[in-house]
Amino acid sequence: MKNIDESLKEPLNPIDSTIDKAIEDISSNGLQESINENNDDKDDNKDEHIIKDAKNERLGGKPPLKTILSLLLGPVLSQVTNALFGIVTTIWVSKAIGIDGVSSIATMNAFDGIGRAFGFFLAVAASTQISSLFGKGLSDEVGQLISDLLRMCLVFGAIVPAILLPILKPCARWFGAEEKIVQMGFDYMLPLASFSATTCIFVAVGGFLQGEGRTFLFGLMSVGSIVLNMLVLHPLFLLAFKMGINGASYATIISEILPSIIFLGLYYGKKFTVVPKFSQLFKKFGPHSLPSLKVGFSQLIAQLSICIPCVLVRKYVGMTINNEKIFTDAMAGLNSAYRINNLSIAVYMAVAQAFIPAASYAYAAKKYRRFLRLMIHSIWINFAWGCYTMVFTFSIPKQLAKILASGDGYLQWAEPMIRIINSLAPVAGIRMNSQSACQALQLGTRATILSFLNNFVSICLYTLLLYYTDKTDGKRIIWCYPLTYATSIVFSIIMLWKPLSNIIKLAKEEKEMEENKELENISET
User: Fold this and answer.
1) What is the DSSP letter of 286?
2) Side-chain half-sphere of 396: how many Cα atoms within 13 Å?
3) Cβ 358 vs Cβ 131: under 8 Å
4) Taking a C-beta distance cutoff of 8 angstroms, is the pair 296, 379 a contact?
């Protein structure tokens, strides 16, 4: 165990010889034998064996496709729930306030996404590093990691409102919104920005559960939140109490706080196999926190690289319009296109969330062929889902638009935008596939660069190109998203060529070693 302790002092490096030796020690005959050989006479280590054996079963005890599918339930429920938050809010605001309310939410939607981006950053940091620690036999260090990431939620909860609140109104006016829409949008964002810490905690707790492979509980938390939001709090605050657009914000906040409190209580109440301690909240950060943040940082860049260009898209769509009423309809239509598209993207992100812990575990345990199979399955699942959503949105865009709002002016914008934004859906998941592969391989810097190119750079460049080649057609600007999906294929191949080539080489060596062992066993018999 001395070699393991020494290796932890070095930066995460998949070719580091000391880590390789440690992984070989715990993976040659499985974690169960390693624990039993050294700790048969200790009750605490029996508990550790149970934890690790359960973890092995969830992340490495099934065939690759079954592993992906078994881990997919929770992320699908979580991501679809997150997408439904926006749809549910739009529906209830449309009923209670009308098209002005929908337009005000659309004007501020990108800023809401910026706040949530920090939560997804911590969720990916948690799920990736927790799985990696289990793969290396270091499950007893997960508790400190959880406590450290919770403290980061509080830090981001202070940073987000400090950045967003001063710029919300100036940005809304810059888009071209009338003053009524500006004020209504600010009223909507004020509570959400102020309670950013609760959003970060809600999303991060999902990452904790996903990192352990607890997909059912992960999904249960998400479903409970959306049911509370959709069926109880939104109608209560908007229709019964008539709180105005603030009611939509508080409904979202409360529906995230309650599940977070319950699951954190279970964690610190020693109800799960991983047991963080309250005292760890006041200790210095553990050795695995910084590496986890480096890996998760690529997810933050990915989220911000999507949200920030949305601000630019809104601006240039607004610049094609000279009428305030048309602007309101255009923003409402754009909001509907984003909301519907978010449902498509939800599954791509869910597949990535299911892939990351399983692939991180496989890579840490030197199961390279398994890593490649997991990646292949995640790619074809995303492709199949993209084909379905493309056909679906092309078939009934008008009907989908009517679910969220109504009005002839609104439909003139919403219907074509819904069709355009999903037009290359079959390849839209490539961005998530490539980024999650880098994250699972602990290539945080490469994942960050890839996220920046596949999202921020591409969307901004295509937005400018589409606007300056035709300054009168705002709907046409939405083509920036399908064009970005196509470009991401090129960037992904370039950035993953060398890492995947190395994995393929190691997988071949792994296969040869297994074949040699089989021949030795046959000769011995």
Assistant:
1) P
2) 8
3) yes
4) no
Residue 43: predicted pLDDT? 44
Task: Return the residue matching tokens 């709090």.
Answer: 233
d(CA 190, CA 186): 6
In one letter, which amino acid is 147? S
Report the b/e string of 430-455 with b at 16+ CB within 10 A. Answer: bbbbbbbbbbbbbbbebbbbbbbbbb
- Nearest of 176, 440, 406, 175 to residue 312 by alpha carbon: 175
- Is residue 275 a contact partner of residue 140, using CB atoms and an 8 Å limit? no
**Segment holding 4, helix H or strand E:** helix 2-8
User: CA 152, 154, 158: angle at the middle one, nearest 5?
Assistant: 115
User: Tokens for 95?
Assistant: 């009923």
- Taking the chain (525 residues) in runs of 10, the rounded mean pLDDT of each run is 37 39 40 42 44 56 88 82 83 91 88 88 89 84 94 96 95 90 95 95 91 83 89 94 93 94 94 89 93 84 84 93 89 92 91 90 91 96 96 95 91 96 95 92 87 92 96 95 96 95 93 84 74
For residue 246, give the amino acid letter: N
Nearest to 140 by CA among 227, 238, 31, 218: 31
> Looking at residue 38, what is its pLDDT?
45
pLDDT of residue 184: 95
Structure tokens at 105: 């939410």
Distance of CA 280 to the CA centre of its chain: 26
Q: How far apart are CA 114 and CA 308, in angstroms?
A: 8
